[in-house]
Design a protein that fits this description.
The protein has 9 helices and 8 strands.
Length: 190
């Protein structure tokens, strides 16, 4: 049960479910480990598993012909699945890379969908998850359009200090849309 301590805490606080449903859900997860630098999700692949980051750090990013752009970091136990691709049975446009050694709990999509049908609380999990994703995406877009990289960095200091400790600075620079040298100057000014 030690592999399920973090996910149990996550569900108890974020998505309270009945105990019977949780036990069956936990029994359906498999434990997977990845080394630093391993790709977990790659553009064009299909999300056939629901993935929960049990420990470690992951970066999520997009690739264009010119560059890679980090869009999100996962440093705390949480689901890291591309829920849009997962729910709509489409290929993903995202990439995810292990920044450290990580442990994931995974469940096959068909097994998860069967549990959603079996337990009423499953629908609330999906609804709440999509609400949170939409809210985060809108905030991210708003910040990217209306704030300077220095303002964004100050927000990271307040709301995501664990990112600044766990994520290499060149990845933070990509997230802010600046070069590592510009980030260095921002840090000196602050």
């Amino acid at each position: 049960m030690s592999n399920f301590t973090q996910i149990s805490k996550f569900f108890e606080t974020e998505y309270p479910l009945n105990k019977e449903g949780l036990k069956e859900l936990f029994n359906s997860f498999q434990v997977e480990t990845y080394k630093k630098g391993d790709l977990i999700l790659q553009i064009g692949s299909f999300e056939n598993h629901l993935r929960f980051l049990n420990n470690g750090s992951v970066r999520e990013y997009y690739i264009s012909p010119e560059k890679e752009t980090n869009t999100l970091f996962y440093t705390t136990p949480q689901f890291i699945t591309d829920f849009s691709a997962f729910n709509n049975d489409t290929s993903t446009r995202k990439n995810q890379e292990a920044l450290t050694k990580i442990e994931l709990l995974t469940i096959e999509k068909s097994t998860f969908r069967n549990l959603l049908q079996k337990y009423e609380c499953g629908k609330s999990f999906i609804d709440l998850t999509f609400q949170k994703i939409l809210q985060n995406k809108e905030q991210f877009e708003y910040n990217r359009i209306t704030k300077t990289p220095e303002e964004l960095y100050k927000e990271l200091m307040i709301y995501k200090p664990h990112w600044l400790q766990a994520i290499p600075q060149y990845h933070i620079a990509s997230y802010l849309g600046v070069t590592p040298e510009t980030l260095s100057r921002i840090r000196k000014r602050i």
